[in-house]
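Lab notebook, bench 4. The sequencing result for the construct came back, and we need a structural model before the next group meeting so we can plan mutations. Quick request posted to the team channel:

Model the 3D structure of this chain.
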Amino acid sequence: MDAVQSYNHLNPLQLEMLQLFSRKVDNDDLLEIKRLIVKYFGDKAIKQADEVWENGKWDNEKIDELRHLHDRTPYNNDNQ
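Done. Here's the predicted structure in token form:
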């Protein structure tokens, strides 16, 4: 499979990242870019969680319900 064909399997974000890193990026810049990406997705997750909370789909009662939930896979005695 040549390089062009393998690019067909990449999404737009992955292609953009390849273009960004096609030139030399030092380790400090790479670390900062990683931090920016993590912050972006973290902020996005918090925003979505806030919206769910504000819409009333989650509340303290639901949190307590989940906190006391013991939905674990039981151990298989044959494997012990």
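The helical segments are 3-7, 12-20, 27-54, 60-67.
Will bring this to the meeting.
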